[in-house]
Amino acid sequence: MADADHALYYSDDLMTNLQLRYGEGMLSPGGAEELGRLVGSIDLSGKTGLDLGCGLGGYDTLLVADYGVGRMVGVDINGAAVQLAARRAADMGMADRVSFHAVEPGPLPFEDNSFDFAFSKDSIVDIPDKAPVLAELHRVIRPGGALLISDWFRADAPYTPEMREWATTGDETYEMASLGSTAAELAAAGFAEIETEDRGEWFVAFCRDEVARLSGPLWPTYVDRFGEESARRSVKNAERRLLLAEQGQLLTGHVRARKPM
Ligand SMILES: C[S@@+](CC[C@H](N)C(=O)[O-])C[C@H]1O[C@@H](n2cnc3c(N)ncnc32)[C@H](O)[C@@H]1O
């Protein structure tokens, strides 16, 4: 998807739509549980972290509240999301521990070695050319610092026609990485201790539940808020995603790595 289209793609309506199914402040599935699996036994207390593609900042406030992170800095190309994230964090009394900045796609506006760790949730999937992003994350993490990514991935095989059709929004297509190609790109960027975790099985169960919720308890809210046609589209899209997940073509996964000392 072209970067310039993104601020438009994550419209207010889409952000409301996603929060209704994923939880307040969340534009991606998984919430506290998947975050816990991603962090694992890594001690983040008192550390300063960068969140690439922070959206509404739901994961940043969780990292501070549940993991004792000292300070989170969220960046996103969507200025409206960043403003909402800042307001939400202030309402939660966390304005001194989290900050949010609108950025342009490309080089990050931070010095080398600025962060103890970097985090990204379901955002690198949106960026077609991933190697420069991983190189930037490597540059801004301090030596010995951790990289924690949770994202959507493709299977190792090329896109099938139905996967390509699903991945195409408007005139653009999500160019997804596989867990294997991500590990290789991280190694090429200079990361070590690279670990990947396939969460495809969890994702299938999540997608199944999402279809049931969208066509059941959430249906009246979606119709009321977005209209029947749009509510139907949400269900249809979730059903197509479930099928691709069941076929193993689309999965979520966690990736951990470290910048060597
Ligand atoms: C699916 S949302 C996830 C937001 C948040 N991480 C969450 O999980 O709730 C993807 C986010 O990535 C942002 N994004 C896309 N391309 C980006 C880029 N090149 N740099 C920073 N953010 C980007 C989008 O604007 C969007 O807010």
TrEMBL record:
One of its GO terms (molecular function) is methyltransferase activity. Residues 45-178 form the Methyltransferase domain. One of its GO terms (biological process) is methylation. InterPro entries: Methyltranfer_dom, SAM-dependent_MTases_sf. It comes from the Bacteria. PANTHER family: PHOSPHOETHANOLAMINE METHYLTRANSFERASE, PHOSPHOETHANOLAMINE METHYLTRANSFERASE ISOFORM X1. This is Ubiquinone/menaquinone biosynthesis C-methylase UbiE. It comes from Dichotomicrobium thermohalophilum.
